[in-house]
Amino acid sequence: MTTYGVVVVAAGKGTRMGTSESKQFLEVGGKPILVHTLETFQRLPRIEAIVVVTGSGDIGRCVGYVERYGLTKVTAITAGGSERQHSVRIGLERLPDGIEVVAVHDGVRPFLTGELIDRCLDKAGESGAAVVAVPVKDTIKVVDPSGRIESTPERRSLWAVQTPQAFRLDLLVEAHREAEREGFVGTDDATLVERLGHPVYVVEGDYANIKITTPDDMLLAERLLQEREESDGL
Ligand SMILES: Nc1ccn([C@@H]2O[C@H](COP(=O)(O)OP(=O)(O)OP(=O)(O)O)[C@@H](O)[C@H]2O)c(=O)n1
Ligand SMILES: C[C@](O)(CO)[C@H](O)COP(=O)(O)O
């Protein structure tokens, strides 16, 4: 049977949020955003290990969350790096032995669901690499630095990629090593695997799986949580 783990990255500074508290620790519905995220992985039966990557000064409070919220699958809490990609690489090194497929997830995407994770892990288990994504709804333009539009890619083939992104662990480790060797820094993990020439597949994501990035996302997050609790009958 395949063994699954997850690296949750939460070592960012939240510059675009502009709050003194890093956004992953802001509360939505009375609970830190990061805890909402971790609880979803905790509940999923096939996840065996959760590695949390956070700021060096925030390790203590994450240890406190594990205790307080019963996050028994958290096997390591470690300090991240200067870029998201570095934080992921550090997290991969802390996974326990025996994990074969790993999901990488942004700590600030608390509205993922078990179904979404399952879809992504299933496809990664079968193909080696899969990411959740949604078709873009707007028309996308490529714009030069002066503001002039250079081109308009065909919308039918454009997808907005989210996390989780899941991979065979050996493949993702190789992709990170290669990127480091070449000094390449990407904005997601799929890009690193694509650079190896390995196929990466999209599976159906969810428009509600937002990455909390700017202050208006906090209002949206409160509303999404309320809707979810109502539909769960809570
Ligand atoms: N050095 C970094 C940078 C980002 N992240 C994590 O990667 C996820 C997505 O990054 P982003 O939304 O860009 O978070 P920040 O880097 O915190 O935000 P900003 O770019 O506005 O500073 C977040 O969970 C963030 O904590 C990380 O673990 N380590
Ligand atoms: C990984 C990601 O969430 C996929 O959409 C995104 O690329 C992270 O970007 P950020 O600039 O680190 O927020």
Concise description?
The protein is an alpha/beta fold and 234 residues long. It has helices at residues 33-43, 59-69, 84-93, 114-127, 169-182, 189-195, 215-231, and strands at residues 4-10, 27-28, 31-32, 47-54, 74-79, 101-106, 129-135, 142-143, 149-151, 159-168, 201-204. The chain is globular and about 50 Å long.
How does this structure look, described?
The protein is α/β, with parallel strands linked by helices. It has one domain: Alpha-Beta Complex (Spore Coat Polysaccharide Biosynthesis Protein SpsA, Chain A). It is built from seven helices and eleven strands. The protein has helices at residues 33-43, 59-69, 84-93, 114-127, 169-182, 189-195, 215-231, and strands at 4-10, 27-28, 31-32, 47-54, 74-79, 101-106, 129-135, 142-143, 149-151, 159-168, 201-204. A seven-stranded mixed sheet has the order 5-4-1-6-10-7-11, sandwiched between helices. It has a two-stranded antiparallel sheet with strand order 2-3. The longest helix has 17 residues, at 215-231. Bound molecules: cytidine-5'-triphosphate (CTP) and the ligand C[C@](O)(CO)[C@H](O)COP(=O)(O)O. Cytidine-5'-triphosphate is lined by residues 9-16, 24, 53, 80-84, 87, 106-108, 211, 213.
